[in-house]
Design goal:
The complex is a heterodimer of chains A (about 100) and B (about 170).
Chain A (H helix, E strand, L loop, with lengths): L2 H26 L3 H27 L3 H30 L14
Chain B lengths: L1 H18 L11 H20 L15 H26 L8 E6 L5 H13 L3 E6 L3 E6 L2 H8 L2 H9 L4
Antiparallel strand pairs in B: 1-3, 2-3
Helix pairs in contact in B: 1-2, 4-6
The chains are: A mainly alpha (about 100), B mainly alpha (about 170).
Chain lengths: ~100, ~170
């Protein structure tokens, strides 16, 4: 196998790991606001590493350019959507669960 | 006018990429499709102009500077560091988190600058911008450390620098 393939697979597996971790976070974290942070992992490193891994598979081609645009649009739309959800929740009066020292819980 | 031309060229470039057309002297070139692309792109710009959407916000050319190019790798590295920290905490059996709400100041002068700052905060795992106001942003942080990192104002200053000296 070519070294690019190794790198590509490492990125794909790394991205998958962060996606699974984000999903676990969605389940484990205590309240709505905290869960947004778990989803943030999936949006950034999860999607990012997978897309970069796919770009290495596609090589220097139009597909890579399109994947680059997908990454660009995800990085603009996902925080905007996250903010819209969080803002709506706050304005509607959902109180965040605060406190808890590191190490407790 | 500067914004209209920039938007038209950007859309034309995007359309050319999506369509997979080659250069006019290439093998996969189809004049009819190319002409339709040029016309439909012009129609979109015309509609956007009629709707009064083409301004410093709809086509933020003022952000396409060398400073923005320098900001992206810095932000990417911050995102990677924050990702690893949050992932470690999620996988830790003790779930060591300390959620808190803080208010940080946003020193950007333009609306688009504030949007970039708020989105940068949200994009970094561990912090989500909840309420964006004229001069402040209310942030929900997953841990005290994440909140303190925003409170240092490092990211705020970097985004303000993107706006230039106007």
């Amino acid at each position: 196998m070519h070294w690019v393939d190794f790198l590509s697979w490492a990125l794909l597996i790394g991205g998958s790991f962060f996606c699974v971790t984000g999903a676990i976070g969605l389940l484990r974290l205590p309240d709505f606001y905290a869960r947004l942070h778990g989803a943030g992992i999936i949006d950034t490193l999860g999607a990012g590493l997978i897309l970069i891994g796919l770009m290495l598979q596609a090589g220097l081609s139009l597909v890579t350019v399109k994947l680059l645009f997908i990454l660009f649009f995800i990085l603009i739309t996902s925080p905007t959507a996250t903010h819209a959800i969080a803002h709506t929740a706050r304005v509607q009066g959902l109180e965040p669960v605060l406190g808890g020292e590191d190490g407790e819980q | 006018m500067r914004h209209i031309i920039t938007l038209y060229l950007l859309l034309l470039g995007a359309w050319t990429l999506w369509s997979g057309l080659s250069w006019p002297w290439g093998e996969h070139f189809e004049p009819l499709v190319a002409v339709m692309g040029v016309l439909s792109t012009a129609l979109v710009v015309f509609l956007a102009w009629r709707m009064d959407l083409v301004d410093a916000e709809g086509a933020p050319v003022q952000l396409t500077t060398f400073r923005t190019v320098a900001y992206i790798p810095w932000l990417a590295w911050e995102i990677v560091k924050a990702n690893i920290d949050v992932a470690r905490r999620i996988l830790d059996p003790r779930l060591p988190i300390s959620p808190n709400m803080i208010e940080v100041s946003a020193s950007q002068s333009s609306e688009i600058g504030r949007v970039v700052y708020a989105n940068s905060i949200t994009l970094t795992p561990g912090t989500v911008s909840v309420i964006v106001e004229e001069t402040t942003i209310t942030v929900h942080a997953l841990t005290r450390e994440a909140g303190e990192a925003v409170e240092t104002g490092d990211m705020d200053r970097r985004v303000t620098r993107l706006e230039g000296s106007d």
